[in-house]
Amino acid sequence: MQRRVAVLFAREDSIYKTMPDCDVWDIKRNALNWPGGMPIVAHPPCRLWGRLRTFANVITGEKELAPWAVEQVRKFGGVLEHPYKSTLWDAMSLPHPGIIDKFQGWTIAIPQFWFGHKAYKRSWFYIVGVGPYHIPPVPLVMGDAEFVIQTRKRKDHRPHVPKADREHTPLKLAEWLLEVARRSERCEVL
Question: Is residue 48 included in any domain, yes or no?
Answer without folding.
Answer: yes
